[in-house]
Amino acid sequence: MIGVLVSGNGTNLQALLDARLPVAAVAANVDCRALARAGEIPTRVFSLHGFPDRERRDAAMADWLAGHGVDLVVCAGYMHLLTAPFLDRFPQRILNVHPSLLPDFPGAHAIDDALAAGAETTGVTVHLVDAGLDTGPVVAREQVPVEPRATLVERIHAVEHRLLPAAAREMLVRERA
Ligand code: GAR
């Protein structure tokens, strides 16, 4: 079962749901629009304000997901780094989607950073999560031409919404084989 971590609009969560992947729980670090997309699926906000430190917040979030049968975590626009108590609970079982060709343009503003750098090509990367900022082994990546700029965000999101569900499905299928 998949647990999805979100912080924003949740269009990638929507893509996972539209792909009929088995999403068992959705957790967020802030109250965000993504949560409304979950429908009947259990959701919970794990705000840093509710915990003495980030490690204990992440441990509680891991407990909650595991309690819902989650064995694959997908970061779908989740904007906090995950700490060891979370990473250690799901070794090699956390995917992230990022709007650049990593290792180029990590961080929260990858599309703007690619534009500011004058890149002609950017893209989307899906990777396994480690303790770094948008680092970890790459599972899938696809190039997206920067021009026409007016539609770049839309085109990147379209690729994300295809690549992320495919990568999650692949991991589920592989573990059943
Ligand atoms: C997506 O573009 C995702 O790749 C990006 O946040 C957006 C979330 O959109 N993630 C990162 O930048 C991670 N460093 P969504 O909330 O509509 O899925």
Polypeptide structure, described:
By secondary structure, this protein is of the alpha/beta class. It contains 5 helices and 7 strands; from the N terminus they run βαββαβαβαββα. It has helices at residues 11-18, 54-67, 84-87, 110-116, 152-176, and strands at residues 2-6, 23-28, 43-45, 72-75, 94-98, 121-128, 138-145. The mean pLDDT is 97. The structure holds glycinamide ribonucleotide.
Quick one: biggest sheet? 7 strands, mixed
The general outline is globular
Each distinct ligand: glycinamide ribonucleotide
What is the helix content?
A: 25-40%
Low-confidence stretches: none
As a whole number of angstroms, the C-alpha radius of gyration is 16 Å
Task: Provide a count of the helices.
Answer: 5
- Whole-Å distance between the termini? 15 Å
Give the SSE string: EHEEHEHEHEEH
**Shape-level CATH architecture:** 3-Layer(aba) Sandwich
Write a short abstract of this structure.
It is built from five helices and seven strands, in the order βαββαβαβαββα. It is α/β, with parallel strands linked by helices and 177 residues long.
Secondary structure blueprint with pairings:
Blueprint: E1 2-6, H1 11-18, E2 23-28, E3 43-45, H2 54-67, E4 72-75, H3 84-87, E5 94-98, H4 110-116, E6 121-128, E7 138-145, H5 152-176
The structure holds glycinamide ribonucleotide (GAR).
The site of glycinamide ribonucleotide has 15 residues, from helix 1 and strand 5.
